[in-house]
Design goal:
With 118 residues, the protein is of the alpha+beta class. The protein has one domain: Transcriptional coactivator/pterin dehydratase (Gyrase A, domain 2, 2-Layer Sandwich), CATH 3.30.1360.20. It has four helices and four strands; from the N terminus they run H-H-E-E-H-E-E-H. The protein has helices spanning 4-8, 24-31, 55-72, 100-110; strands at 38-39, 46-51, 77-81, 85-90. It has a four-stranded antiparallel beta sheet, with helices on one face. The N and C termini lie far apart (34 Å).
Length: 118
């Protein structure tokens, strides 16, 4: 079993070489390595919600996520509503579900400092 640290040491791979999307069992196994993330009901995506300190804190965090996503060439869906409620969704669109790339990016996002609401 990999640890969250092990995931952060990996790089996302090109989607063409990933094969098939994870089944539910494998997705749950990887989910255990990414605290704070939730598996969708259909098992095809993971998401994390954060309540940020304020709007600018949310924007700073989104920019940090964007930098990592660009480095990994694996891009999340980012939703900011109510000026500080942030949700990040990860899925490997090319596979129509989850891959190790999603959990690698989730683990790296977990390492970012977030200015959360107190």
């Amino acid at each position: 079993m990999n640890s969250p640290t092990a995931l952060t040491q990996k790089k996302c791979q090109p989607c063409e070489g990933l094969g098939q999307a994870f089944d539910l069992t494998k997705a749950k196994e990887y989910l255990n390595q990414t605290p704070g993330w939730k598996l969708s009901e259909d098992g095809k995506s993971i998401s994390r919600e954060l309540i940020m300190k304020n709007f600018m804190a949310a924007i700073r965090f989104v920019n940090k996520v964007a930098e990592i996503a660009e480095q990994e060439n694996h891009h999340p869906d980012i939703h900011l509503v109510g000026y500080r409620k942030l949700r990040i969704d990860l899925s490997t669109h090319a596979l129509g579900g989850l891959s190790e790339n999603d959990f690698i990016l989730a683990a790296k996002i977990n390492e970012l400092q977030a200015e959360l609401k107190q």
